[in-house]
Give the backbone structure.
Amino acid sequence: IEAEIEQPLEEVYSEFNEEPLGSASIGQVYKATLKENGMDVAVKVQKPGIAENIDTDVVIMKYLAEKLHKNDELKKFNLPGIMDAFDHSIHIEIDYTYELMNMKQLERNFIEDDTIHIPIAYPQYCTSKVLTMEFVEGTKMQDVIESDSEEFDKPLLAKRVLDSFMKQLLLDGFFHDDPHAGNIFVLDDNVVCYIDLGTVGILDEDFRKDLCDLLMLVGEKDVKGVINQFIYMG
């Protein structure tokens, strides 16, 4: 962290818990307190050497994909194409500047919606390998789903998540593309908070219009119309 932000930890954080809150394949997350404003933050840090390890793995996987692609039964899966897409996606995910930009964009898109929250990021303490953002005090959606507590309004939460995704997909064309229940937190007053925005999806206007038509046909239970719309969309 010090090498990335080019400052000693004690100059940036008044407190820094060296025990990670969580660990994934690419990075770890620590809880800290910013010295400048006393805010609790989550500091996401990339594991040392992970980029080099990924590069090696991708080379091996591409080699195997090319070998398997020569099999007539496997050609239809286009494994080399899948590996090219994976290569592109994983290198975006290990560059935290993309996640910072994604957080800022989604925050702008929901600026007028107080039922959806995106963690505040602190760009001055972010690099391609370190991301400093608001520490979210909430309950993971997975735990909410399994809970019988009356503090959670599950029908309301379901509606808010669905509405927010209709907006992301159909209006904005910019959406969180890994929205599993571990990446959604529930805050006070049943506010929905999205985390882990390393990768997003983007839909152009024409595709959004086609998707709207498809959903309307589904809503009308027009089976032939749905089939024709799928054919039209390719």
